[in-house]
Write a sequence for this structure.
């Protein structure tokens, strides 16, 4: 029974990781931009959300409504002002630029919010759960999972069936050829990063509701997102979702083997996938 | 009549290396012009400058008499220029139809002379392979996709960079057979070719380029082999 519980809790945890990973699937998986601010941006958004909630006295769903457009605007600005200038075949410039930005963001967050851990009050929804036999299933984690599935499905449709999706895949495949076919890659990339960071707006609210956030937490989320994308296979949105599930389940099962082993179990499974199937589960080689 | 494209003293650089030294070319609406020259003469550089992939001064390239040098590629495309690039440059990981759709999505404002169906009737094999990943096609078929993609940008001026390169003679013939239909649609064409006789046959006028300069120009039917040999290799004594 405890293994079934581990599996279920793992899938639910995977739902949260999928929300970290989706934006990464777009930026790293498709556009091949290494954005080291990914986790910090999520933390920043969560902290903004928490401040908004207490300043305006609004509930988590209203925070979500405000935060997602703000997140998209931040993403758009990030691409326009920074990443479009450093994007090239060579991943090193984007790595260095975003590394600097990540350090700056963390310090700025420390200044504004201090190192305290905070969370977003959910008005009781964080404690609500269903009981099935001896297993408890939290209402909030189920909402997170359902949201993750909807976001993944929507993004997948966007990538395969829209003008924007085609333009983005074309730019990622050969940016010069895409430009010669009439695509404006800078606009397309700005929109893609707006979407990627917009999704982090969802992740930020759910992270704030499900657990706590502090300015230095971003690194862990960054790693989970990278791992999920690589486990699933570069360029595949559902792959990233699946990778997030693998990670969530590994951590949850690992935690039941030994509470200190949970996080490590996730990393070990990641390394195992890397060794056995380096192109990822859905990846082509 | 205003030329659809003219270049005036076009110079182009790769870093410190100068690849073009004052190239003057004019193309009238609807005409087919060949550009020939040896490896490294600067033909692709010329086309890439027109497409906005190389920084040049605005006046150096004029579309319908309007300076456009240095504008980004997507603006050049909306101005009515499309290119079949050297090496085909299809979008890997996307199907044949998706490759073509990118061009439809981003076509110039010109009315829809070219449709997916019309491209499929030019190259019936593409209709059969429309759901295949583009990179899985043969070289000739990939070239057809690349041409179809350029046409679906609805160009008034089509630039073709060595579309015969690496293809079997039968496939080259098949591809060149569609050129008249492109011209009949009122599209001007620049054909960059290494195969001189093919270039002469398929064009109204011809330019020969050598080391970044135009060394010969005239009506394709009136230029002699000796003139071309001299312009191509640089002086009659250049090759023993
Ligand atoms: N990216 C680049 N960087 C530096 N030099 C370049 C670059 N591309 C081309 N060149 C140089 O510019 C000159 C012109 O090259 P270009 O590709 O335009 O020639 P071409 O006439 O198209 O030749 P080919 O028939 O082989 O395609 C050559 O000397 C080439 O070495
Ligand atoms: Mg060339």
């Amino acid at each position: 029974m405890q293994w079934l519980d581990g599996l279920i809790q793992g899938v639910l945890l995977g739902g949260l990781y999928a929300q970290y990973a989706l934006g990464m699937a777009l930026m790293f998986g498709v556009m091949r931009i290494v954005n080291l601010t990914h986790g910090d941006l999520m933390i920043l958004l969560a902290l903004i959300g928490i401040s908004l909630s207490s300043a305006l006295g609004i509930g988590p769903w209203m925070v979500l409504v405000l935060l997602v457009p703000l997140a998209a605007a931040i993403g758009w600005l990030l691409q326009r002002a920074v990443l479009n200038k450093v994007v090239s075949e060579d991943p090193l410039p984007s790595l260095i630029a975003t590394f600097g930005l990540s350090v700056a963001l963390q310090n700025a967050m420390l200044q504004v919010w201090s190192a305290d851990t905070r969370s977003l009050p959910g008005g009781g929804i964080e404690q609500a759960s269903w009981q099935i036999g001896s297993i408890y299933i939290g209402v909030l984690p189920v909402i997170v999972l359902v949201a993750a599935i909807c976001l993944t499905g929507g993004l997948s449709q966007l990538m395969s069936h829209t003008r924007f999706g085609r333009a983005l895949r074309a730019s990622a495949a050969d940016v010069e050829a895409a430009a010669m076919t009439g695509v404006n890659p800078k606009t397309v990339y700005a929109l893609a990063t707006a979407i990627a960071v917009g999704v982090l707006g969802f992740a930020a609210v759910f992270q704030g509701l499900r657990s706590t956030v502090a300015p230095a937490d971003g690194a862990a989320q960054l790693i989970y997102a990278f791992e999920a994308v690589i486990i699933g296979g570069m360029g595949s949105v559902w792959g990233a979702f699946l990778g997030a599930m693998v990670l969530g389940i590994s951590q949850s099962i690992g935690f039941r083997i030994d509470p200190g082993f949970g996080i490590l179990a996730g990393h070990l499974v990641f390394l195992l996938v890397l060794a056995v199937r380096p192109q990822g589960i859905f990846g082509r080689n | 009549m205003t030329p659809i494209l003219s270049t005036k003293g076009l110079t182009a650089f790769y870093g410190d290396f100068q690849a073009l030294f004052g190239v003057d070319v004019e193309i009238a609406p609807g005409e087919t012009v060949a550009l020939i020259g040896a490896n490294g003469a600067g033909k692709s550089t010329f086309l890439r400058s027109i497409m906005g992939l190389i920084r040049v001064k605005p006046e150096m390239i004029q579309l319908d008499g309007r300076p456009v040098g240095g504008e980004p590629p997507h603006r050049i495309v909306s101005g009515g220029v499309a290119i079949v690039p050297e090496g085909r440059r299809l979008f890997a990981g996307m199907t044949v139809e998706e490759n073509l759709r990118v061009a439809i999505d981003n076509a110039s404002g010109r009315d829809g002379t070219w449709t997916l169906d019309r491209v499929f009737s030019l190259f019936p094999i593409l209709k059969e392979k429309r759901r295949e990943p583009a990179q899985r096609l043969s070289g000739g078929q990939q070239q057809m996709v690349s041409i179809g993609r350029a046409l679906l940008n609805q160009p008034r001026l089509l630039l073709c960079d060595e579309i015969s390169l690496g293809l079997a003679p039968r496939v080259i013939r098949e591809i060149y057979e569609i050129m008249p239909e492109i011209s009949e649609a009122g599209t001007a064409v620049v054909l960059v070719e290494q195969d001189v006789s093919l270039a002469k046959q398929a064009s109204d006028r011809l330019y020969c380029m050598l080391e970044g300069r135009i060394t010969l120009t005239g009506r394709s039917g009136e230029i002699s082999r000796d003139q071309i040999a001299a312009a191509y290799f640089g002086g009659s004594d250049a090759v023993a």
